[in-house]
């Protein structure tokens, strides 16, 4: 394959030690101060040798480029870019019947013992959108250490790592005994948390509170097959959201986003669905009816594939908040729950570093 690469791009990507720091992987050259606009390869300044292009520039600087590295820069397809950027794996889309007998799970000790455990754990989360952790000590301290094996915990207006009982200490239905329909969290942020972990430490003097999970990506695929127009509407019409239950804040995303949000290559990137926190639907009045019709088809599909399973002390649940919706049935008695959020990029970084290795994670994008 031949491509015309601008000389300024090549010079800008020189990885010699004057231009690129070998351990921080940062560019050292001030591109727009130090590289003249008319930079060019010196006469006879290009030759090939042992898989490398060696270049002498018209100002005397010398650079070399690995051919494979160069090729990967311009060969990559939309799919391979999504793999590089998002750590996209072959997804196992599921309905309840596919996973209820053997949901993805991993042992607590494996995760705590080494990064190989984190590698397997994050891979399962990437593949299925959720994973149980078996044999976790039923304490907030053990649960927090577990979650921090992935990355630091994301703080929000509710705090960082949480440990609460249903007492409405925070202005949100999560802190009540009410049933909660399938939703994703944090639609009121421009960037919702990437992961959430729940651990029910105890449930006394009552019953109920079964947890619900729905694979939002599986639902999106069904909607696309069955109701392509509805899929299109939920992918294009944007929605606002808000969290205004605390007296001192009203969190709102700075821009509206569609329920089904895609990356620049057309891959479904994120499901944002929270009817409790939904605010203005950002379309014209004559588009509103079609948004409601599409959203009804979407919720019909969510109900068809939902998966119910009680939470148990000693068995935290972690899920991909950009893919899997969660909810719960109403309960009586007292439940003590702990858990927290992890940022998306921190999760994907940890996934890629443990599954691809450092070189393979950095090289395609640096
Ligand atoms: Fe939630
Ligand atoms: Zn250089």
TrEMBL record:
Species lineage: Eukaryota, Fungi, Dikarya, Ascomycota, Pezizomycotina
Family: Belongs to the gamma-BBH/TMLD family.
Pfam families linked to this entry: GBBH-like_N, TauD
Pathway membership, UniProt: Amine and polyamine biosynthesis; carnitine biosynthesis
GO CC field: mitochondrion
Purpose of the protein: Converts trimethyllysine (TML) into hydroxytrimethyllysine (HTML).
Protein name: Trimethyllysine dioxygenase
CC cofactor: Fe(2+); L-ascorbate
Domain TauD/TfdA-like: 105-341
Known EC number: 1.14.11.8
Keyword Oxidoreductase: yes
Coiled coil residues, start to end: none
Metal-binding among keywords: yes
Known catalytic reactions: N(6),N(6),N(6)-trimethyl-L-lysine + 2-oxoglutarate + O2 = (3S)-3-hydroxy-N(6),N(6),N(6)-trimethyl-L-lysine + succinate + CO2
Ranges where the Gamma-butyrobetaine hydroxylase-like N-terminal domain occurs: 5-70
Keywords, comma-separated and alphabetical: Carnitine biosynthesis, Dioxygenase, Iron, Metal-binding, Oxidoreductase
GO biological process: carnitine biosynthetic process
One GO MF term attached to the UniProt entry: trimethyllysine dioxygenase activity
